[in-house]
Amino acid sequence: QVQLVESGGGLVQPGGSLRLSCRSSGSIFSMISMGWYRQAPGKERELVAAIASGGSTYYADSVKGRLTISRDNAKITVYLQMDSLKPEDTAVYYCYGDRGGLRYWGQGTQVTVSS
């Protein structure tokens, strides 16, 4: 059983930064892919960023150049560095990990961008 626990969300002003963390209860070496989705009120959940076991990354067009995903295998943690935040980035952010044909989810962390 794998558990993913997110942290780092909060309230930030437009233009500010946050770093989200997703810590796994088990090794992330075996995770084929890990990443972050977000869901804003009244909208569908969307994939924001992902990182494969080999290190290749994916970003949604709306966040390219502002968000950076990385992983620390020693700390079994995946990070999402969020810079130049905009009000439209406001959402609940969910971490996920794929292993053995299963997708595991974190509980979500709220990010609010507002002045």
Percent helix: under 10%
Multimer state: single chain
**Overall pLDDT metric:** 93
Instruction: Identify low-pLDDT runs.
Output: none
Question: Which radius of gyration do the C-alpha atoms yield?
Answer: 13 Å
Roughly how many Å apart are the termini? Answer: 40 Å
- Which structural category fits the helices and strands? mainly beta
3D architecture notes:
- By secondary structure, this protein is mostly beta strands.
- The chain contains no helices and eleven strands.
- Strands 2, 4, 5, 6, 9, 10 and 11 form a seven-stranded mixed sheet that branches.
- It is globular.
- The N and C termini lie far apart (40 Å).
Helices and strands in order, then pairings?
Blueprint: E1 4-7, E2 10-12, E3 18-24, E4 33-39, E5 46-52, E6 57-59, E7 67-72, E8 77-82, E9 91-99, E10 102-105, E11 109-113
Parallel strand pairs: 2-11
Antiparallel strand pairs: 1-3, 3-8, 4-5, 4-9, 5-6, 7-8, 9-10, 9-11
Q: What attributes characterize this protein structure?
A:
about 120 residues; mainly beta; seven-stranded mixed sheet; four-stranded antiparallel sheet; about 0% helix; globular
Compact overview of the structure:
The chain has 115 residues and is an all-beta fold.
